[in-house]
Write a structure and sequence with these properties.
The protein is of the alpha+beta class and 153 residues long. It has helices at residues 10-13, 43-50, 69-80, 89-95, 101-104, 115-124, 126-152, and strands at residues 23-26, 34-37, 52-57, 62-67, 81-85. Helix 2 packs antiparallel against helix 3 (69-80) and helix 3 crosses helix 6.
Length: 153
């Protein structure tokens, strides 16, 4: 008697999700602060294209595409940083210089994860910006290696 194999379809085998799922990652220096990060993946090229602006180049007397970094950062941050937890004044002080530390040091609540807050951290905290980009690359590399291992089996 022969064993009948189940019928497979491509939809069962191919990961059709356009976006990789986000993952919670604790900040290496501030373990009480963690960020829900979604890797950029295939969206990187889309963000670059959406951030291009045609400007007149006087040297060549033609239009030239230039990257609008503010627009790119906004698109990147909206996609990559999904949420965060544990960002208090004490932790924020480790990431950026505060204008008036003494006036806010007794504040006990957490900062909400809004677009403006994300942009401020990315712009004014080089260590936070670098860490977010590194985590995105690491997660994408991990996923790529996992897929390559699965292909070998």
């Amino acid at each position: 008697m022969t064993e009948q194999l189940p019928v497979l379809s491509l939809g069962d085998l191919i990961d059709t999700r356009e976006l990789q799922p986000p993952v919670w990652v604790a900040h290496p220096l501030i373990t009480t602060f963690k960020v829900l990060i979604r890797p950029v993946g295939s969206k990187h090229q889309e963000f670059l294209e959406q951030s291009q602006e045609l400007k007149w180049d006087m040297a060549t007397m033609s239009r030239k595409a230039e990257l609008d970094m503010d627009k790119y950062l906004r698109l990147f941050v909206e996609h990559v940083i999904v949420d965060w937890q544990g960002l208090t004044v004490k932790e924020l002080r480790k990431l950026v210089l505060l204008d008036d530390w003494k006036a806010v040091k007794r504040h006990k609540g957490e900062f909400a994860c809004g677009l403006n807050e994300k942009l401020l951290l990315m712009r004014f905290s080089p260590s936070f910006n670098t860490w977010i980009n590194k985590v995105c690359r690491d997660v994408e590399l991990f996923n790529r290696e996992r897929e390559e291992e699965a292909e070998k089996k």
